[in-house]
């Protein structure tokens, strides 16, 4: 028998659809033929169900198709959807590391040390599309399939987040993602934030290993030498620091703030649902 939550989700997901005639659904399908729905439109359809499943896990929506939990900050867990080509949205479970920067195409280092700024640093998503939301041809396919794909996606994400909660969480998370995404070959590596991998390597594999990875990365990435020098200095500091760094070390001049003040920070995001003029 279905659990109460599954029965409730099934009733909620089909209530609106049952009230419409087959002719109305056919009209909708023709109207949306070969058109891709926006992330905001998909979010409006699924957020009630996702909020129901993730709310008890202390996640909050911070952007369309993005939910974040900050109980373990500076390591934050994420659940989101990412585009798999232009045909579907793949569920993605990730951790965002407050202490690991991202680097932009303009060679600018930026931190994301809040729930609103959280970005996937260590990421995993299904190698195949069996849990995807297909956002072509209107809302009909999403409403029809979401119970069958969202619940198992959250259950799989739970296994990933449980690994992240261990003392060596980010290191174990990378190992989990590599094993889970093995059928994708090199593509699993392309989904990770390379700077996060360097920080994890500095702490769990040693500074020499991290610096070797840094040298290898800069042979294929056209960043200025000064950027490499800054990252190297951060890695040296990270290797000596407790892990994870205490939140106060990210706020006061010291371990990381002494270095991050040199770099331009990203523009603070607006609250969810508010657009820039």
Walkthrough of the structure:
With 277 residues, the chain is α+β, with helices and mostly antiparallel strands. It has a domain at 4-188. The chain has helices at 4-18, 22-31, 39-55, 140-164, 169-180, 187-190, 194-204, 207-220, 225-240, 257-260, and strands at residues 60-63, 66-69, 75-84, 88-97, 102-103, 109-110, 122-124. The strands form two sheets. The chain has a five-stranded antiparallel β-sheet with strand order 1-2-3-4-7. A two-stranded antiparallel sheet has the order 5-6.
Blueprint of the fold:
Layout: H1 4-18, H2 22-31, H3 39-55, E1 60-63, E2 66-69, E3 75-84, E4 88-97, E5 102-103, E6 109-110, E7 122-124, H4 140-164, H5 169-180, H6 187-190, H7 194-204, H8 207-220, H9 225-240, H10 257-260
Antiparallel strand pairs: 1-2, 2-3, 3-4, 4-7, 5-6
Helix pairs in contact: 1-4, 3-4, 4-5, 7-8, 7-9, 8-9
